[in-house]
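Q&A log
Question type: sequence-to-structure
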Amino acid sequence: MKTKTLCLSLFPSLAALTGALCPQVVHASVLGDGEDSMAESSESTIAPDPSPAPPPDQPPPTSTPTETVGAPDSGAAEADEAPATSVATAEPAAEPVAEPTTAPPAATVATTEDEQGVTTAGAASAAPAVAGDSPDVASEAPPKWTDDLSFGAFVDAYVGFNTNMPRPQGGNNALRAFDSANGFSLAWAGLNTSYEGERAGATVDLRFGPATNAGWSDDAIPGIQHVKQGYATWNALPEGKLTFDFGRFDTIYGAEVAESWNNHTYTRGALYNLAQPFWHTGLRVSSQLNDTVAINGLLVNGWGHIVDNNAAKSVGLQLGLTPGKGVFGLYVGYLGGAESDDVDELGVSIEGANWDLRHLADVVMTVDLRRLSLAFNADYVFDDTPAGPQQWAGAMASARFQATDWLGLAARGEYLFDPDGFMSGAPSNTLATGTLTADFKPAKMLTLRFDARGDASQEAIFSTGTATPSADPEMPTPPELRQFQLTFTLGMVVHSF
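Response status: OK
Response body:
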């Protein structure tokens, strides 16, 4: 055996040929045990190898096991008959587990496509997986609570012109909610923040500007006019099956909302401004029973009270039906409760104030087609106040056609009954409004709307800039009133939501 091994060491350049002629010798040198075998193998590698070195772009003879994957059987036999100089590199190939016919599980997971068809190849595909690591855990970072936070902001400004030329410039456009001034003005600016967790959430909508004092608002409480919405949410059941909102929130009644770009026209209608509540404080319960039916319930401090003006509470209910995947919507709602003060200015209780109820019936219908949207809203209110019953009613219809991606046209008409003068301050009165709107969207999140609007009243309620001269300078004559006003308003809104 020593003689044959020495033969290999004397002729290293013919190692392959000698291995072929002396297969048993090589096999014995590889599988030999004891110190003698190791010494003999060490002695055989002392002589220099005159064989030429491999080119720089090729790997050395000590190839990894993956280089032999898929090799024919003859190649495997040659590996067994390799010279003693390759003993160290031949051992991994001889192990039965070093036969990686497929990629490691971690690499396979890392290069699969997700549900959106996006290939996710990470470090796991370039490096072997660590024992005990889960591919799914390694590829997905744990969610952060900040991922459920969202922010939005807007600025709403306008310029208006009233043909009646009322003076002073501010606050004399009758029947208006957020655009009552002439000339340039800021309606308001807003910041919305919400946290929408799986089971809990919170919403805070802040508003700043003249429009914060419009509508039903407890302006006597410092700063409250800046909080349009502020409520906490508990998702008692998943997928909107049962949700509780507690705090101050927008009303669920009516077809129009405070944000101008979410309506068909820039100016909000008289029905929205005079006949309906703007917001509530209390508890709102919502349930999306299925894709078509939803129910909302309210237990609140009436119409726009942070602190209630009586001991009673108002109860509301709304049923929403949206068949046809939201193409058609029908919303029927009711709100009932005492709205009168139960004590006078001196703190004396007013008998029966907590049982004199106001009832609101509200119906909204919507149709949303590809480029055409329609809306109809009707309200009837009966208020049994300590001073006597009051009632008012009205209806609104509007349509909007999206002619192009950047141009839309809209129209709205209203008719309101005010027999007791609750809305207009003039008994036995009726009101009517008509609005035409051109809607431009020259850039993303930018809305320009031009409203041409006429308002009419059976009684003269609209201010003018002219007045009959007074003989007493200390008691000027109030401006003349008219039965109509014609206004032109250009509103510009930049909004992120």
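Response note: Residues 10 and 444 are 83 Å apart (CA to CA).
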